[in-house]
Amino acid sequence: MNSKQKNCPKKPLTRFITDDDNCWQLNQYKSFGGYEGLQQALTLSGSAVLDEIKESNLRGRGGAGFPTGLKWSFVPQGDDAPHPKYMIVNADEMEPGAFKDRLLLEKTPHQIIEGLIIGGYTLDADIGYIFIRGDYYTAIERIELALKECYNNNLLGRNILGSGFNFEIHIHTSAGRYICGEETALINSLEGKRANPRAKPPFPQVAGLWGKPTIVNNVETFCNLPHILNFGATWFKSLGRFKDAGTKIFGVSGRVKTPGLWELPMGTPIGEIIENYAGGMCDGYKLKGYLPGGGSTDFLLEKHLDTPMDYDEIGKQRSRMGTGTIIVLDDKYCPVAMVLNLVKFFAQESCGWCTPCRDGLPWAAVLLEKIEQGKGELADIQQLEDLCKFAAPGNTFCALAPGAVEPLQSALVFFRVDFEQHIEQQSCPYCNSDNLEDGDDK
Amino acid sequence: MTLQNQIPTNEIVEFSDVEKAQIDKLLLENPHISGVSIDALKIIQNHRSWVSDACILSLSQYLDLPLSDLESVATFYNLIFRQPVGKVVLHPCDGISCDLMGGEHIRKCLSNKLEINNGQTTKDNQFTLISLPCLGACDKAPVMIANETLFELIQEKNLPLIINNLKEAISK
Amino acid sequence: MTNKVTLYIDNLSYQVPDNINLLQACLSLNMDVPYFCWHPALGSVGACRQCAVMQYQNEEDTRGRLVMSCMTPVTEGMRISFNNEKAHTFRATNIEAIMTNHPHDCPVCEEGGDCHLQDMTLLSGHIKRRYPGIKRTHNNQYLGPFLNHEMNRCIGCYRCVRFYRDYCGGKDLNVFSSKNNIYFGRTESGNLENEFSGNLAEVCPTGVFTDKPFSKHYIRKWDLQSSPSICTHCSIGCNIYATERGGIIRKINNRLNQDINGHFLCNRGRFGYQHVNHENKISQVWSRDHQSNKTHALDNIHAHIKLKKWLNESNARIIGIGSPRSSIENNAALHKLVGAHNFYAGIAKNELTQLNLLTKTYESNQINLLSLKEIEQTDTVLLVGEDVTQTAPRIALSIRQMTKNRGINKAEKFGIKPWQDEALRNITQDTKSPLIIINTHESKLSDVAKQNLNLSPNKQLILLLEIETYLVNNTSHCSELAISIASDLLNANNPAIITGTHSFNIELLSACLRISAILKKQKNNSGFYCATSAVNTLGLSLLCEPEQDITHLIESIESEPPTLLVIMETDLFRYFSDKKLTTYLDKIKHIIVIDQLITDTVKMADLVLPATSFSEQNATLINNEGRSQRAYAVMPANDMRQTPYKWLAQHNSLDDDHKLYQYIQSIDSLLQPLSQFKSINKGDFTSARQPLRSSARTAFFANVDVKEYAPICDDKSNLTYSMEGVSAFRQKTLDNTQYKITTPVTGVWSPKWNSSQAINKTSLEDKNESDLAVKIFNTASAVPFEIPTAQQKTYNQPLNTISVCPHHHIYTNDDLATFSSSIGELAPKPLIHMNQKQANYLSIKSGEKLTITSNEYQISLPCEIHNTIADGVILVPFIEYIRLGTNIQVPSNYTDGEYDD
Ligand SMILES: Cc1cc2nc3c(=O)[nH]c(=O)nc-3n(C[C@H](O)[C@H](O)[C@H](O)COP(=O)(O)O)c2cc1C
Ligand code: SF4
Ligand code: FES
After folding, report:
1. Cys-Cys link to C70, which of A331, C23, C250, C437 (CB 3.0-4.6 A)?
2. Residues B7, B31 share a domain
3. Whole-complex ipTM
4. Where would I find the H helices in A23-154?
5. What residues of A are in contact with residue B42 (Cβ under 8 Å)?
């Protein structure tokens, strides 16, 4: 398939994004080759498309990096498969420090829709949902308009582009809860229920929304599909600099010179992203550590900067790729305050279903607050360590709590001195740091 | 409805034609009634700025869903307000990326300026302050959402202007 | 049939059934695995994380991984460790986390001593609080007369909402908010609407929901004397533990009987006991002197002298009235005293006919008689003419469970077991096994019914006859409705017909029986179940001859008044209008009433003999499926009260048990198996009704006398009214009789497990250990009987278009339960119900009064309009319906023929 002579892009995901404010619209999207991936897919059988996706080694961009093709292959196929089947775009993005999906949602809504239609075609799905964070107003507006454009242009609805394939897409704006991003909680939310995660098995692929086969994938995952169809799996694999295939939107936030988002090959070293793209640390600030993939990943240090942004490689350093959005901790911000902020967030966002998360995280938050306020005892550190083990993966009902304690458990190792200082001095050593003040002008 | 069912004596509200039309459209798109409950709550909130007890009761009758189911859902989600809010709800971000960039200070300044704590509404009923976790604009930290607009790279000195602009927007 | 698999737990091998989860397996192996969110009837959801154990892939695996035992199906060769240190630490931290918000209020908490949370906290080894933060607090709600609410104690196990909503179909209890602020309650204070809400007191593992009437006379569990008994408030005969201290019944707990009530009781059964403690209970013999018109107390000797005199008067014509709420023994004693021809049942005319029809059919073996457990296993139910939620509530709960079976089958295809509760619900969604309800009005089961057919009795009958015709000969032309129902029954693997006698409609019953018999011929798996009116109605009907019902009794009194009328535990004023009855009773020379409470009938008596309540007597009761069950006294009879058969023993020459049971057998061969009950009265060892720790027992009578009284003996059973004897939990089956009767277990208690959750630790095979029952129809040999064809009534005026039908209510139907204040609080006001069409026709508005008259009675009640009532039907409260009798005149402004439905 990749034999076709095409101008193969290096940055497929962002190739549609121009300075033009209207670059998200259908005509512009098409003028850059939009919906060619879909047309390509429609010439193939569903199973051929699935093979291509499997072949491409695409791994889910929502955080866990699960191979997309493998996930899809569990969906029942054939004439006696249950219907309707559902395909859902997870656009809930509420992970602290993650802001990559917003870019794609606002700038390339058609890329997402195209990916979703391809997904629907591949698995013979009937209905698509875009589950989008409620406060992404611009994105919501554009997606709604983009969907209208699609319906008007026979890209959605009955007999899409004459292929005989029927597919509808609905948009659901979330009422706001981080846990809605967890795929089974998301499904409950779509059913109008409290967003408690579901027990697995059954996996959503066989019994998800309304008990029917359902696929949930991240925005960015869907965005990759048109290009894989268009330029082929081999091309896709060749994009990565390490083992993982394709490109990814990486981001950096914190005290760096130019925080932002960039589409870069998978496997780009962390240091390169922070130095070359984010411009390095702001003047007067030093890098103390960073969360490589958003608020629920373990801290890494300067010594890990050579690590490529590759699922397995980061795993070897005991952290995670997560969302690929790096949060940088500088030397003037209190690491205890940072984990306190994060743990508080996760405690606040616990759905309240299982004990380690519902009661364990608030407990950890109380201890961290106590330490941060200069009232800590050494025993508190031990308790925090216990609580991290308590909420370890497998111990809780979903991955929220294990993710929540990742920054904490690594901070307790890497920044132990800071914790101890808080306790020894009975105050926060950073409390006079200018960081707490409005400091953007510096 | 069964014989034993008692309708609570609470007051109810009459939904506007627009609200009804929007809810009916949801019902048309979704074969499962319970599937529309969150969207329907949001529609009501859009029109009335918050969802009162009476609204929930009316909605439960309109959709023929148990009252306690709707209440259970309404109290679960962050963006359904079950108490009255001011004309504009200010959502400064309290996510970590904003805090790293001085977000906490901005929130303090906002509190001081409006003379309310987080979760409260100003006496003139203009503003309610509800900080939200990471708003997904971390490269522009610190940020705030208000009136469906994202304010980026907020600095203390810009706050008076932002507030004034919002006030003007309300009065329009 | 379940197969066994081998498990290795901490390197020891065990055999367990292959269809259960690991938690259940461990508990049944008597291991102390702590848990909260799991419940044997509600299944597993994996929320509390308390039941964690270490699982290993194979023998080489030394690391293992933590799994929730409740979520893990047992598999062959599975290796786990309970004692592993990591697992232990996890469980200890988990309960410590749970306890971060739990108040330190055990000393004032009513759950204390009977608390699953206390047990689990001790088990998991959490002693010292490390959490330094502030506890979250909540406001409580008023939830009605049955339950207290103390939300601060909540540990977030979600059991209450899963029970109330998913199991009972309740809508008004839910979980609100989220994170560690979750709140379980109603949207606002108010009565919990569901009929099974009282179970929350047992379902909640801690003290959030506690038994409110119990609060009013609270006693710690370790001071409660307890014994196995049978609920006397409807015909099902749910198994209960009655608990007592100081002569006061304190609380009713569920007693697990897998065939009947399982883990749950209805509110009438749980809270109806308060009549035992009622101020109107009769505690001594009263005699009325006609000359002076005064009532005075008599002692025992004089009572018997009087009784003897009246019995032996020359020309004595003696009539006795037996009671459906009294035991077989009591009724048989009266039967012997007055003779078969003079023995009438305190049962309404139509019901006795219905009962004869039922017992003959049951005996003929033409239908399969189901138990509640078997109802839960059926896959299609046709429920006819009985609002079971109101008349025999526990059935409704079982029917509700049966509707889940289609979903369970569907889930099985995904490899999901029935106990994987949440997964099951996600797969099931709206899938339900068909439940078709035919009645005069919609019931609380309507939400799970495939069809709710609200029809007048006549139309119900027409439909049933059509179904019958179609089943016999499916070519004949029938209505589409009949064909669809018949097809549902035919398509099912094990369909059930469920009905009851509360419609008082004989034709409907025979139609149901015939359909059931036809179905059984075509499908051996089909079953039948019929609710009757009271706990021993069916038993009583076996004792009396046909037509010896209450109407015939009155006719007999009218034609020739007896010299002596002995009324046992029957309030005749529930059947007849005051005026009519008083005139008849006035014609009788001597009236003796044996009863527990001062009723209007008691007020008419010349001699009142105080009868024991269910809590003071050992009794045999035969429920609606012919299951005869043994109930045990929880306390010695109070004051002068005696079991009625003891009052009569001197006079009917049945003065020992041997003779009594021999006499019972001689009345009807179906009662043969009952003789077994006398042999269990004495076992090899005695069991204690009081728990080991019963405190201050020697000081009970300190206000009367300084000396310590010897415990009162119970010579009718092998239970003691003391701590002496084997403790409840240690008993094993004592099974050397033909009918497999076992020793009674007096309560639920197990080492380290003080709450009633200890029941879940009994091994799976022994679960029915306390089932002291014989099914009489199972042991009988089939006697041929042809079920009469139902005749469509050709009504001569004016009931052909308007039917006055009985309206039942859970809190008013049973006479004893109405003496409970908590039940009384929820009793509805008497109203007449009809639909709008009917009201228009009668030109009556909601709230206006409607008058209905019969030959000798008249009611005038406000109307309420409900459109879920069938056309042509007027519902009147059950009690009034009975008093109206069958000769009902339709409302005054009705003229025949105008009404067109
Ligand atoms: C607490 C929690 C929050 C999550 N939030 C998101 C989210 O906002 N967006 C997202 O794409 N995935 C999120 N995920 C991951 C999803 O559960 C799921 O793995 C993902 O949507 C699958 O898509 P992918 O295979 O394309 O990565 C979250 C997971 C957890 C446990
Ligand atoms: S870890 Fe447990 S409580 Fe936390 S969000 Fe997941 S399921 Fe809910
Ligand atoms: S009992 Fe197993 S998780 Fe609650």
Report:
1. C23
2. yes
3. 0.95
4. 26-31, 36-42, 46-56, 68-72, 100-107, 109-123, 137-152
5. 134, 173, 175
